[in-house]
Structure prediction request, 1101 residues.
Amino acid sequence: MGLLSRLFGFKHSDSSADTKVPANYPDEYKQILKFSDSLNSILGKDRFIARSDYDGLVKEYSSLPPFIDTLKKSQMLKTYVESNNLDMTVIERFYETYRKLADITNVPDFIKKHNDEFVQRHLKGEKKYLDDILKECDPNIMLDDEQREVVLSNEDYTLVIAGAGAGKTTTVAAKVRYLVEKQGVNPEQILVISFTNKAVNELKERINHNLKINCPISTFHSIGNSIMNINEDGKKRIVEGGYMFTIINRYLKETVLRDSELVDKLILFFGSYFTAPYEGKDLAEYFQFISRTEFSTIKSNVQEYIQQVIDHKTKEVKTLNNEILRSQEEVNIANFLYLNQIDYEYEPFYQYQILDSNKPYTPDFVIRQGDKVTYIEHFGITQDGTNNLYSPEDIEKYKKRINDKILLHRKHKTDLIYTFSKYNDGTDYLVHLKEELIARGYELNKRPSEEVYQKIVNSEETKYIVRLVNLICNFISNFKTQGYKEEHFDIFKSKIQNVRTRLFLDICRTCYLEYQKCLIQDNCTDFEDMINESAELIRKKKIAKERLGYKYIIVDEYQDISRQRYNLIKELSSLCDAKIVAVGDDWQSIYAFSGSILPLFTHFCEEFGYGQELKITRTYRNAQELINIAGSFVQRNSEQIQKSLISNKSIENPIIIQTYCDKKDKKKEGTPKGGIYYYLGEAVNSSIQAILEQNEKEGKREVASILLIGRYGFDARNLCNSEDFNYDERSKTIYSAKFGKRVKLSFLTAHSSKGLSADNVIIINAKDEMFGFPSQIEDDPVLHLVVSHDDSYNYAEERRLFYVALTRTKNRVFIITPENRPSEFIKELLIEKKLYPNVVLNGNLNLESKRKIKNVCPICGYPMQRRMNKNYGLELWMCMNDQEICGFMTNDTRGGDLAIKKCDWCKDGYLIIKPGSNGKEPILGCTNYKSDKDKTGCNRMMSRDYYLKWIDDSIGNEDPSVGKYEYLRPAKVELESVRIPEMTTPKTILVRKEEKTKTVNTTTTQLHHIEKDGFEVVCDASGNILTDMELLKKIRHWRFEKAKEIKKPAYIILSNASLVDLATRQPVTREELLSITGIGEKKLELYGDEIIKIIIEHSRQ
Prediction:
């Protein structure tokens, strides 16, 4: 019996006509039999059955199941069957079959069986065709069974999950050819989309160039532009990120002054919310936050802070222009006082000579207005005495210190205002401060907003405006990428209570509207609007189906899909009734910062309503040993789709970790320039040497091709601080001074390397630091509204990025890491040996190292910052903890827990760290010490043992040095007159971070002639020629012959600069050729194959 006979219990006709049934059957029963004929017709065809093939049946016969339900509920079904002489089995089986077909979440078992049989039948019947399907691309390519199943399958929505090196591009090319040649699909009805020009060019190479199939292959941006042009009479100019920066920067510096309300909000944001506060509970993360944050005030940043002090060591006058506080909350208080024109001084000496832990007591602020003088103490705990960053013991110590300070001020009858970080009534501490000031009769005279804002704009310190513009541009770009519109600003605000975020949204909304207005005025569009508007045009049926007419939409690198791109392909599919084939790898999803949303990939079928997921698990790039390590590494995050990749390749020691010295005190005498980067260069050279030796062992005589991968672009320049490497600024290429033409180096960031493969890979930045790998840079919290934040696992996206870097190699991957600050990823690879076998360590490594702050307080462990202390006239390391817990300060960290104290033998001396005699441990000695025989200075000294007995941690004791001799007499040093410098408009805006340094070895050029032609050839920093002069002669000769052949001047074919670039960088693929000066798509098609042939033949000689 056939499938339908088994389903419904009767034989069906093999003809296309409906099954003949008695005329007296009820209409409903006739419909059931008709349903069976229609389903049989679908199942009887030799094709893959997609849901759309039977979805019409489900809709057409949707009234039958409710009819049967009604009979069942009324217990009339049996009577209905018997009275009409029907077959109950047929009805029951129909009911079950329909239920399976209507279930959108599952493919019916009989449909799945049919499709499985179809695939297996065609795997055998079309074996020869599938064997040769890509021979025009590469005769050695042979699709595996998983790839062939993708080619043969034809569901409406198909997700192909492919591992690194599994042949995603190969599979897409084969799928296109099969659709054209076997399914009869017009090539113009197959749209292939990828995200970057690099990926598009590779697909064009395979499909358009090799297979000669002229289907459209494009980026999302190009598709959006094409759709926009269909619907518009005139083309809009497409602008990039620089346009947005210019518009918003100009608006915030100039036009915004017309909007007083927004100016007030900007000043409030700059004054109280510019730096996002740390809101977590992890102490280590908090230490990282405060160690890298500069708590400077508006007064300082607009250059109105100026303080002159006498340096206790040199006795010279120093001028301080930078006011740095201990915490952001203190900065907010200082800014509040400044903006309300209340004169303040930060951490002044208390007016009475009172000690706090053996040093002068310094309240947080003193303010003066008229004859009023008030001290302000701000406490970093809540009003009810909590702070999740402090232990219970610390909290008790903190509360005692608060009480001691309050009693101290009462005792001496000095006015004190104290504030807490948070209040029980939820009111902000600045509101409480304002109330206290008003109650004491202080006048709060708000500085004119325009005046303050203009000072901020005109200040040479571009910190505020530039950082805010960058943040707003980032937010708006991702806001649009998620498909959001203006009303979403209100939606965000309605769900958020955070004051800083709400304030930012108000500012950002105004900038967004200004930017959109300028786009319209200038007849421009950006990439984000182009895609959003294209999807909207399709959704509103403003684009006719006939104008597009796609039957298949194939999306490469689908793991990078954003909401707006998803909307576009879904609307395209809906308009054209096109099937979607999405190919990608969730393990390589690394673009959240630019809008990608991983759940759109991992929940593919739910997003589209239904679909099919297929896996390609055989990798052709990596050895099995390497892919086992990399796969285990990325799958530590259980949220990733689990898969086991298979490879026929095998290799010993697939991952080699090479260490280098990263401690300055270990430097050898006479180390060449470059410092630590000299040792980094040594480590890279050791890895290159190992690659060359392995190549020689395997009989490989050609030039070794090596890809250097960094986490950031400036990793390439950092490496070239070593004399062994030279950096070409123009092409961003690295050249080896040591190995010369024996190696061909290329450099890419881990992000840029995705989709590429290399013979050998060296990862050069596996260190534990802010710009290391993993990167420890944190996004501003406001970006979490528009950027997908994957917190499923620690460093989730960085882990996937590291996986990408590991899997670029066809052979081994070398990882360069410092001995004392190895990356967390490196430690994991080495410590968990069972999970990661075959990882080799070359050199010494401190696996016990933990992420450290460079300079930490020896008392409480908090970070310290070094700055000139105006009270002491000394450069001091100052603990950033609240002084209620720890007020440690020292002039020399080698003194350990010895802290600067007030000298008790003289009026104006301080006990500071000094070296002990004869190499003994450091001691404390007075700043007024003199080594003369007459002992005219203060000779107070104490050893550490004495110090530990002498110190007193209490507050409130009177200074015992009162009335004693004063060595630093004010009359001897005249302070210069204090004048606030005039504001000057900055000539340039410094946005960055990594500035060029003279230590980087960069390439130069020299003029050389070949006959009459002059060529600016590339040389290293020492003047050695890097350009292959013999190859240059060959390419020049080819150009000469080609010019004669086509009867055009030689420069029309390629310029001299292009020839030098070819002879220096020696590209051997069409994709590499596109990176050469003067070579675009047209010249690639005209001359690409000939040029590559010349270079390859030359390299083999």
User: Anything to note?
Assistant: Residues 434 and 560 are 50 Å apart (CA to CA). The chain has 40 helices and 34 strands.
